[in-house]
Amino acid sequence: MATGKDEVYTGSNRLRYKFPTIMPWAKEPSPNFSHLFSIALTKLEETPSRSRPMTKTKENFQLHFIGIGPQKNGSTWLHEVLACHPQILLPSGTKETMFFDKYYDKGEAWYTDYFPKMNDPQQRVGEIGPTYFTCEKAIERIKRLSPNCKIIISLRNPVARAISLHHHHLNKGRVSPVFQDAVQKMPEILESGHYSQYLPKWMDAFGSSQIHIVFLDDIQNNKQEVWQDLCKFLGVSPVPMPNRAYEKVNAKRMSKYPWLARAGVEVAIKMREYKLHGLVETLKKAGLEKIYSGGEARILPLSAQDIEWLRNLYEKDVQYLEQLTHKDLSGWRHF
Known about the structure:
By secondary structure, the chain is α/β, with parallel strands linked by helices. The chain has 2 domains: 2-46 and 263-289, no CATH class; 65-246, P-loop containing nucleotide triphosphate hydrolases (Rossmann fold, 3-Layer(aba) Sandwich), CATH 3.40.50. It is 45% helix and 11% strand. Strand 5, helix 4 and strand 6 (124-128) form a beta-alpha-beta unit. Helix 2 packs antiparallel against helix 13 (277-292) and helix 5 packs parallel to helix 9.
């Protein structure tokens, strides 16, 4: 129930939002945003049961594979192309469940409810969760649910990855455009580039034969081979690569109003927690994204000093990958 032009309340103590709290920089919130925000919270209040764990896990549920990221390394492309394969079953209604790191306390039934029922023993059930890479608890939890789960790890030049993730959080209104200030506030911008620290943990848990590494460079330059290798690793038919593989996915957009972008992200997070993914997409189409998104992102160049600092920070990780994969990654040192 709305109680004023600048605040929206639900009838529950569980969900209570106030615009000045979420957007302290805003003297007058956008009327369009207020309306969409009101719709979102009303819908949340109408569906309280979706926040509670279900009582029964699907019988014989097995997670065959999971892509663990890390972020900004091609995970969206992987999700889009795998979703086109007739033998692949991904979560319904969302790209990322965030179950194994953020929502594990909701219970396995909450997670398995995302997946359609298998109709063919040749089908493979999995998801792409790019936030799992640096989460050690996720390793334990995935292993507990599906000990034989296959792990897909997508990698790129860690310097480029850090810059891209900085832009991502900047667009969401979460960090400063000054790179060093941003990584002070959000250390995870740097953390997921430490491949030599986290890759061995996944390999120890699942075994090297259950790990498949995909390089973003290969996705960009040799999609067909990447697709064929993926199908072989997952044990599915090598069907023709979908046209979606050639389309640009996850295009960067720059926020016109960082405070409004941040508020929109918070609303979307809460709705996804309630499994209202369809409503998130509806609100985007209704104009929520257009309110705070102003077209193609402008690339914010880093100083030569920052780039050199990143190169030195990640040199150990590049050397580790070269030894592990026998791949020449010298080009990464000349970003």
